[in-house]
Amino acid sequence: MVRVLLRFAHAVDALNDRVGRSVKWLILLVTLISAVNALWRYTFGESSNAGLEMQWYLFGAVFLLAAGDTLKHNGHVRIDFIYGRLSRRGQLLIDIFGTVLFLLPFCALIIWFSWPMFMLAWQSGEMSPDAGGLLRWPVKLLIPVGFGLLGLQGIAELIKHAAALCEEPSA
């Protein structure tokens, strides 16, 4: 059973790795769109709401979709002055309890509340109220998808931490 769970965890790792590598390209795209928007505004004195919204959407996509990959690589903020002083076993226990008590319930709540918001925007074809604005449902879909990837990575980390805890000698 442990092998099956660890295979699942590694599959989630691979998924978030692929998503994380892909999302990095969005940063280049956001930068290019931003530069074009600025050049257009300063050259012609005009601005594009669609261009500005695209920047915001892609910027949101980077953060939401890369959260799982960031968790996998231990890149999230933590209280290191306490955590760093703990034994490996203590760190694993903190990670397990934090995942079970905070991360997974938070991801589930965000998915639960954001899915109807996305569905409503999708079914109604919700558009930005700004002139020339974009459809809203794609950016609203990013919320449950991003937190879904984060939650999956949380489960994968939980599996890996529990397996490591079983291997740690209790002192």
From TrEMBL:
Signal peptide start-end: none
Principal cellular location given in the protein's record: membrane
Keywords: Cell inner membrane, Cell membrane, Membrane, Transmembrane, Transmembrane helix, Transport
Localization per record: Cell inner membrane
Domain of life per record: Bacteria
Transmembrane segments: 25-42, 54-71, 92-115, 135-152
UniProt topology in membrane: Multi-pass membrane protein
Domain Tripartite ATP-independent periplasmic transporters DctQ component: 31-162
GO molecular function, one term: transmembrane transporter activity
Pfam family, one: DctQ
One of the record's GO cellular component terms: plasma membrane
Record text on subunit structure and interactions: The complex comprises the extracytoplasmic solute receptor protein and the two transmembrane proteins.
Functional description taken from the UniProt entry: Part of the tripartite ATP-independent periplasmic (TRAP) transport system.
UniProt-recorded name of the protein: TRAP transporter small permease protein
Species this chain originates from: Sulfuriferula nivalis
